[in-house]
């Protein structure tokens, strides 16, 4: 004789409950509550706990739990109760602490680990949960919780690393900061920049230690880069004009970037070039003959990349006018010609203005002063 288990609690739904459960099951609430709503609907249709468990891929105990919860508390039994949890300690800053933390967080020479901890504490003082602060600063929840608690207990001293077991570090953080500050804010006497040897002599550290500190801080005192700021009062208007030509050229017109590359050395090898052979590359002599210099005038078509070019011994206004005539002959007569030029003196002489006045289809667009990089032909010259 087989023994039957306890009879499942019967689920009877009112019209309002069935409608609300149907909405929840369709996704009006979280995925977990939606699954519970579908379980109750299946139970209300007369299915056993085992059948419902198999249909939804859950355990029989799960179905029995939510069936009982619904019978006891109805709809409220399907919603998760708020968890009390441990209340996070409140963090309040004094004015001096706020000023010091802000300095640590913003100063470029502060060690990165200390700057991050300062930002965590400042953000905790503004309010919000540890989870929100962790997501905002890109750290883990435990990291925020640790430094919140450490600051509340030890204040500013709690943000420093505690002494570790083992041999103490041979290089203190103050020494690292001294190297970084000296590298960024001073020069070694008459020299232009610090070397590992000169910085080692100043600080008493080894050259390899200085190299490691610079590498970790991404400092390269031996490198220099250049920049150029245009002082053209019409900078914005000229940029819009030139860039507009590149992106939206006029109809029935061609846009040409014009410039000259001067001081090109005309060289010739002293012996004929030996051709490539199996097992041997092409060979040239190391010495050469000089045949003076030349200037390359070029007009780069921004639409198709074709180039109109001409060589001249010099690059005066006379040669530039000859090149304009060359462009006039090369471009079909039915097209307007928009020239993008830099502010070189030969491009704006009275002689050139007179020539342009006699050729109304030519329109000149000057780049801002100190901004010849906007002229696309410069890219072609660099190939």
TrEMBL record:
Entries under InterPro entries matching the protein: Homeodomain-like_sf, MscS-like_channel, Tc1-like_DDE_dom, Transpos_IS630-like, WH-like_DNA-bd_sf
SUPFAM superfamilies per UniProt: Homeodomain-like
Domain of life assignment: Bacteria
Residue ranges annotated for the Tc1-like transposase DDE domain, each copy included: 255-382
Pfam families the record matches: DDE_3, HTH_23, HTH_32
Ranges in coiled-coil conformation: none
PANTHER family: MECHANOSENSITIVE CHANNEL MSCK (PTHR30347:SF1), POTASSIUM CHANNEL RELATED (PTHR30347)
NCBIfam families: transpos_IS630
Protein name: Transposase
Organism: Streptomyces zagrosensis
Species classification: Bacteria, Bacillati, Actinomycetota, Actinomycetes, Kitasatosporales
């Amino acid at each position: 004789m087989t023994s039957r288990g306890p009879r499942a609690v019967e689920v009877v739904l009112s019209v309002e409950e069935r409608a609300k459960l149907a909405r929840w099951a369709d996704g009006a609430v979280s995925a977990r509550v939606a699954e519970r709503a579908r379980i109750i609907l299946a139970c209300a249709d007369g299915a056993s706990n085992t059948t419902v468990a198999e249909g939804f891929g859950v355990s029989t105990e799960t179905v029995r739990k939510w069936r009982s919860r619904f019978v006891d508390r109805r709809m409220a039994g399907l919603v998760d109760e708020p968890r009390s949890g441990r209340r996070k300690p409140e963090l309040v800053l004094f004015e001096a602490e706020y000023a010091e933390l802000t300095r640590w967080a913003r100063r470029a020479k502060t060690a990165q680990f200390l700057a991050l901890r300062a930002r965590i504490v400042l953000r905790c003082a503004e309010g919000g949960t540890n989870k929100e602060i962790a997501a905002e600063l890109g750290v883990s929840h435990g990291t925020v919780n640790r430094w919140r608690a450490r600051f509340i207990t030890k204040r500013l001293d709690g943000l420093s690393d505690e002494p570790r077991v083992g041999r103490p570090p041979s290089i203190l953080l103050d020494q690292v900061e001294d190297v970084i500050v000296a590298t960024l804010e001073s020069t070694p006497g008459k020299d232009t920049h610090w070397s590992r040897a000169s910085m080692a002599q100043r600080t008493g550290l080894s050259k390899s230690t200085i190299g490691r500190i610079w590498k970790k801080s991404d400092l390269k005192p031996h490198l220099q880069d250049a920049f150029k700021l245009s002082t053209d009062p019409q900078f914005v208007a000229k940029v819009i004009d030139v860039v507009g030509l590149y992106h939206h050229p006029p109809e029935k017109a061609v846009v040409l970037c014009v410039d000259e590359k001067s001081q090109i050395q005309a060289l010739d090898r002293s012996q004929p070039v030996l051709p490539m052979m199996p097992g041997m590359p092409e060979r040239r002599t190391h010495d050469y003959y000089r045949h003076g210099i030349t200037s390359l005038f070029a007009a780069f078509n921004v639409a198709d990349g074709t180039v109109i070019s001409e060589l001249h011994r010099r690059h005066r206004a006379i040669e530039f006018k000859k090149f304009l005539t060359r462009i006039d002959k090369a471009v079909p007569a039915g097209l307007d010609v928009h020239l993008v030029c830099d502010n070189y003196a030969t491009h704006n002489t009275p002689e050139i203005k007179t020539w342009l006045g006699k050729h109304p289809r030519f329109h000149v667009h000057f780049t801002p002063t100190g901004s010849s990089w906007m002229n696309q032909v410069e890219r072609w010259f660099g190939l």
